[in-house]
Amino acid sequence: MKSAMVQAICSPEIDIPGTLLAYLPGVSKSGRVGIAVCHDKRRVVYSLRHTAYKSREYIDEQPDQLFRDSYDAHNNIFSLYAVIDDQPVASIRCCVHDPRHAPCDIPAFSVYPETKARFAGLKILELNRFVISPNVDNHSRAYAVLILRYGIQVGKILGVKRVLAAVRERHTSFYKRFANMSLLCGPSYYPGLKFSTVLMGCDFEENYPLTLKHPMLPWTREEEASFYQVVNGVYRKG
Q1: How far apart are CA 210 and CA 11, in angstroms?
Q2: What do you get for the CA distance between the two ends of the chain, in Å?
């Protein structure tokens, strides 16, 4: 069985189009989205997680002010981040399970054990560790849609069959509207977090077109090609 690998290269970034920045209140300059591959960018993501979670007392304070777990070191897992006006504002982790490659463990299979038997034969994208900077709390919905836009597009680029997302129970209606996700598993706890999440999911190929109905989600061919190069330049199948 071959391995799927995240390449240890400099973290690639692409510009966020001005049409998207227009949806983000208070943005004056520019924005970028990237994949945290190199050490410095991983620290940016771990620091943002710590700041976001600790601001709501969702985690215990870490001595180094960084929040990460063992899955962050897995070759089939990588994090996206968004930087607006040179400030990190959002991040989401992409965990890819591909039964043709090893290793391919994803957190959902441990947190919700019943999912492994149900979905282990499918190529899956699990989205988790989804955080928004407390500095943009007043407009967090727009920033959430922004980073989800890129997370969902990873699923298209990698050709997954299902998308899974661990979410707060109070957010289930948003994911239902956003991508027609349904509830798969009841409350459980991800490592290190003090709040529980439920697991939602959907058939990706069937529901991807639904996400494009949101005004922030459609892609131009040029932008789609640029992000395709970024993702495939990082996530290699050995």
Answers
A1: 30
A2: 10
Nearest partner of 146 among 217, 42, 222, judged by Cα: 217
* Residues 106-120 pLDDT 10s: 999 999 999 998 998
Handedness of CA 63, 69, 72, 78 (dihedral sign): negative
Q: What one-character-per-residue DSSP string does 39-103 give?
A: HHHHHHHHHHHHHHHHHTT-SPPPTTS----GGGG-TTEEEEEEEETTEEEEEEEEEEE-TTBS-
pLDDT score at 27: 67
Backbone angles phi, psi at 173, to 5 degrees: -65, -35
Q: Which residues contact 29 (CB under 8 A, 6 or more apart)?
A: 85, 86
Is the CB of residue 153 less than 8 Å from the CB of residue 219?
A: yes
Residues 232-236: contacts with CB within 8 Å, 24+ apart? 232/157, 233/7, 233/9, 233/12, 234/6, 234/7, 234/9, 234/12, 234/35, 234/37, 234/78, 235/4, 235/5, 235/6, 235/7, 235/78, 235/96, 235/158, 236/4, 236/5, 236/6, 236/7
Calculate the CA dihedral of residues 23, 154, 32, 25 and round it to 10 degrees.
20
Q: Compute the mean pLDDT over every residue in the chain, rounded to the nearest whole number.
A: 90
The amino acid at 151: G
Tens of pLDDT, residues 178-187: 889 999 999 9
Closest CA to 35 of 86, 101, 82: 82
Tokens of 141: 């919905």
